[in-house]
Amino acid sequence: MTKLNVISAEKVKSLRLDNGWSQELLAKASGLSIRTIQRVEKEGSGSAETQLALAATFNISSKELFVISSTLDVNWKRKNIMQSAFALIVVFAAVFMLVTLAGSVTMFLDLYGLVFLVLFMYAATVIAFGSHGLVKSLKGLKYLFTSEISPSPASEFLAVIFKKQIHFLYGGALIALMVGSVSIHGNYSIITSDADFHAAYAVNILIILYAAIFAEGILRPLTAKLKSKSL
Q1: By three-state DSSP, how is residue 217 classified?
Q2: Which CATH class is domain 9-65?
Q3: Which of 53, 90, 138, 190 is the 20 to 30 Å CA partner of 167?
């Protein structure tokens, strides 16, 4: 694994160039020697004092200078995998039981709404975190099946992505709900009966159900798991 206290040489160089500074100017601004700046940008090595000086100069936290590992240190144990898989099955079985008690399963199917919700959430993820954030979130779903995750910048970053995806899910669902409501009321004159009106509204609110199932059944437990191991 990558050490947590290794400075990202690429990040320091990128921040310097973003400010239009040469290495000499960065050295003067940070109070460090030119040799220290060159060593940081070449090897990524630097003392705690160097990290703090650079962070203060760039007005960021020192953690943002670290190399972030692309993988998490996870202990995959059969017991943990089976336990998490069973719990996930129980959650979705409970939801399915409620659906069957409420009526026909087909009443709760809206393929277009589901596709919109998934596309909206992942498109917003790309906007917020880039394509690498999208890939991390997709790969990170596998951590549902483990309960032993060592804290690291990678786990913290993944927790942030999942937390934001919860917001994106409910935001997308709210947008779809409002658009659907406008459509229903805008076309009220062609709705032939109260039964059709209520059926249209029933389909309209399904997207809220989809968002809640995915957010509360998958993303929020994942976020809690990653954050609890980072405490």
Answers
A1: helix
A2: mainly alpha
A3: 90
